[in-house]
Inverse folding.
């Protein structure tokens, strides 16, 4: 069955592709940074896979297994193209960004290396902090943290000053989930490589908005989550540069990742399979490839411009509301805008907005150290996707103005 959607969709046509808005016509969904809604194209692809092709991959001689394997591996090729990797050997299926980062951290733990410092930034999600903290503790190393500027951007001078010949890896996000800051990926990777360090980009918030090109960034690793780019939950991709992956010890072990096993010793499979132990999330991979196909059917430039317009509308509207403080208002951003309102607790605000069918997220956004750095307990986050409309933002602004009067 061909599930290809028509080409070059404009923002006003996109909303109809998402059945959730038929089920909830009044819903204002401004929580796409937590997870995006799923287009029919993805739902159909998953259903079609289970109804027509379901079998385990790579092992059996029968026809269905061959079809499932072809579909699974062609999904890998789709993702390779989407992110600009040179080879499918560099595309490892994971459960998501968190697992991708953990894979690299766990593997580096086994690597005998002179370098023991790990450099992250104040902007990171817990998923890009805790695995490195654990790694530093295990290898007797040090976790260093590059500061952000008062504008909410990574301070590149501070980052450069904290890099050295003991730095093993620099791990940072492409787009901040809490502030929306769009970070200069290529520049940071260049700084890391100039000191002989590896670089890992947490692309969780970027993959649904930006056209990713790991080759242009010259990063060693790039981790993303399918569910934040219109795909299903429980599937993601870790890109790893082939020559770097070749040097990395395996992490999870078991079936699929082996070449030969005896009770005395095991030899491991080639890339990318040696990092994929056990039966993979086949339907998830198929669904994620359908999401990648769906993204390609959009007019990406128009979708991006539309999101920027919505955020600009939100920004100027919020600035009219008394007591509102926008986080990083002038930083280059993608998809996200966060704010606090004086004397209004973010949780109360979230509850009031929910009563008006406005879904957004309030709190620390899995970035507690960043909240501490900003001196706030939490923020309210508006996150957009191409299916949002100007009307969504207007309803949000009206509801916020009313909520402020009630709560402040
Ligand atoms: C910047 C960032 N990194 C990592 C993650 C973790 O992603 P996942 O829970 O899909 O593994 C998130 C999720 O919100 C995120 O926004």
């Amino acid at each position: 069955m061909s599930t290809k959607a028509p080409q070059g969709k404009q923002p006003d046509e996109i909303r109809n592709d998402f059945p959730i808005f038929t089920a909830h016509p009044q819903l204002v969904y401004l929580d796409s940074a937590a997870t995006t809604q799923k287009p029919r194209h993805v739902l159909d692809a998953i259903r079609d896979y289970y109804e027509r092709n379901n079998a385990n991959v790579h092992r059996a001689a029968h026809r269905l297994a061959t079809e499932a394997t072809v579909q699974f591996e062609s999904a890998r090729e789709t993702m390779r193209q989407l992110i600009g990797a040179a080879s499918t050997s560099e595309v490892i299926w994971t459960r998501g960004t968190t697992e991708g980062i953990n894979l690299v951290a766990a593997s580096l733990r086994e690597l005998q290396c002179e370098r023991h410092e790990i450099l992250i930034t104040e902007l990171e999600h817990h998923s890009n902090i805790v695995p490195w903290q654990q790694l530093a503790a295990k290898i007797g190393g040090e976790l260093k943290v590059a500061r952000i500027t008062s504008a909410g951007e990574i301070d590149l001078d501070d980052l450069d000053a904290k890099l050295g010949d003991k730095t093993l890896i620099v791990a940072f996000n492409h787009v901040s989930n809490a502030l929306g800051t769009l970070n200069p990926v290529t520049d940071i990777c260049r700084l890391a490589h100039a000191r002989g360090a590896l670089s890992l980009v947490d692309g969780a918030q970027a993959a649904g908005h930006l056209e990713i090109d790991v080759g242009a960034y010259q990063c060693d690793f790039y981790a993303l989550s399918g569910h934040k780019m219109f795909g299903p939950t429980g599937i993601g991709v870790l890109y790893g540069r082939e020559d770097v992956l070749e040097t990395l010890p395996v992490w999870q072990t078991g079936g699929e990742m082996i070449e030969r096993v005896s009770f005395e010793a095991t030899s491991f499979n080639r890339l990318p399979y040696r990092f994929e132990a056990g039966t993979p999330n086949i339907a998830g991979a198929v669904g994620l490839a359908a999401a990648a196909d769906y993204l390609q059917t959009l007019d990406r430039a128009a979708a991006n411009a539309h999101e920027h317009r919505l955020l600009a509308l939100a920004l100027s509207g919020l600035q009219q509301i008394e007591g509102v403080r926008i986080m990083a208002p002038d930083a280059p951003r993608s998809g996200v805008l966060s704010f606090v309102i004086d004397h209004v607790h973010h949780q109360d605000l979230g509850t009031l907005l929910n009563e008006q069918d406005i879904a957004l997220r309030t709190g620390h956004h899995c970035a507690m150290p960043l909240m501490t750095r900003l001196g706030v307990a939490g923020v309210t986050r508006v996150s957009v996707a191409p299916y949002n409309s100007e009307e969504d933002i207007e309803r949000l602004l009206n509801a916020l103005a009313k909520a402020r009067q009630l709560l402040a």
